[in-house]
Amino acid sequence: MSRKGFGRILGTILALTMLLSIFPASAAGPEPADSVYRNGKIYTVNEDFTVVSAIAVKGDRLVYVGDEAGVEAYIGADTKVVDLGGKTVIPGLVEGHMHVTGLGSSLMNLDCFWMPKQTILDLVKAAAEQAEPGEWIQGRGWMNTVWENTDYPTKEELDAVAPNNPVFLTRACGHMGWANSMALELGGITKDTPNPQGGEYLKDENGELLGCMTDTAMNPIRAQIPELTLEQQRQGLLKAQEQLFSYGLTSAMDAGNSIEVYEEVFGPLYESGQLKLRVYGMISHTAADNETAQYLKDHPIDPDNYELLYNNHLSLRCVKMFADGSLGARSAAMLEPYSDRDDHIGDYRYTQEEIDPIVKVAYDAGYQVATHAIGDGANHQVINAYEAAIKANPREDHRLRIEHFQIVAPEDIDRALELGILPSMQTTHATSDMLVAEDRVGSERIKTSYAWRTILDKGGIIPNGSDAPVELVNPYHGLYAAVTRCNRLGSPEGGWHMEQAMTREEALRSFTNWSAYAEFNEDIKGSLEVGKLADFVVLDRDIMTCPEEDIKDTQALMTVSGGEVVFTRDNSKPTIMWNGLPLTFNSPFYTEPGTIYAPLSDLANGLTATVTRDGSKATITVEDKTAEVEIKTVNGVEYVGVRALFEGLGRNVTWYGLSSCVSVGWLK
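Above: the chain's sequence. Below: its structure in token form.
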């Protein structure tokens, strides 16, 4: 399916239908809107990427998209009129691949995201000191590739800080776990335990358990961890919603949950009105003959007449499968051995003979199938299974998806696009995996890996997402990675394989109408057009024109879903964005006209800086850069000028007044 022209006819028909239904022909003109947003720079992200200045909302739909003169007709006595003051507006962002409940549960456990190993061990130690003996300690986000010693961690390291509690920490990728001895014992895992299909117990040079395991090998431990109660799951889901709305994400694809979770966790929250996030749910599907498979057969989907649940808030027309693991864990399934591990091809979840009927069950019941496949072997296998299902039962518009589509043989890229398979990719994966990717697959296979430009130039589209909590859910990190092929640290200089980068327009489409198309919802969301849902976000900067390095720091000022304001940013305190993340301050800022002063000690901690003082001056060193700044003491707290410090370190500094945000860029 070409990305040019998809949905044009359907969108036009929908717009005309909505206009006729809402506004009967009359000489009196249109009915007044509930709200009007005017005097803005509004990127519609429609077919022509039109920019307008005003929109009008009635109910949960857009009834006008255009210029200032035209919107006047929609303003009545009770219409709320919002002057945007030139601010940038984009469609509500559509998260194309994440784990919504996974993000919620991760917010309730230890946050280990990309932290130094010692920091993680300190967190575990502190948690153990507060926990009852035998109580589980869980966390997620460790990433050995960013540690000084990139070796996988050991059980002994966790034993030393938590000897009386089982500990299980999931790697950022979600495909490897790090356990202590008590957790291994509770899971019944010994050095003699055989590797299961689709997983591996890592061992040291003496054949002893290391404490790390991949994919299905984690299951015995996970089976011992007490499940969250329904109420805990609901609270976690609401926490995830709060975070998503704060970034301007109004929709999210939830990459795999049971029917029971959608019925018992999502359903009651939608019914109570607490859950307002639009969710494209995916039913976890693992076998051709289990209860879920029978459910799919008993509840077939009519692709031409599927109705969204809870007033366009929940879709359950897709299933999620796994074909392999991750590149970082060396469990992605490869056609040829890993370049950095002899005779190891990763972990296939299924044989070809096993996966084909699993795909067929869901496909024949009318469901969209989305399968996790990272290695070129897994991608080849999934394409084979999809092709077999399509040939046996042709469907005009199947939109079968492959999630991640990272390491793919050139001929399989062509084959997937010819079959109409959608490559659902996450741009931040490339800028995280680049630390190990070429080592894992070598210089030849890397040429067609994370191949966004190749796919786009061949006429494909790329639904984008974060895979949170694998990566941070912040969509502006994804937009930034798509355009620059750099990580949040600005590395590597000039970008990693920039020949595969996206344009800014493509990047924005990947988080809006391309992701909406990938879930069969391009007729109601993904762009700002008459008749579509009034989902949009007001930004503190123009992401189409601001410095590339500042895209990652973008702040949502207001998020609107179905015409309802669901998030408003508190700008009463300045925010300093360093490497794409806000610095944390325990003391208040101090301001003078034109100058912001930040607490010196908090800055030093946040920047991991060394500070030496000489009277009223401080010499601050961050990595190999040094700045000398004046110290101002106020109420016993030492302060330094923010701009003076960062410019002294050779960084670009941009002040975004709409959000009271300081974006710290790279070297001048």
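The longest helix spans residues 230-246.
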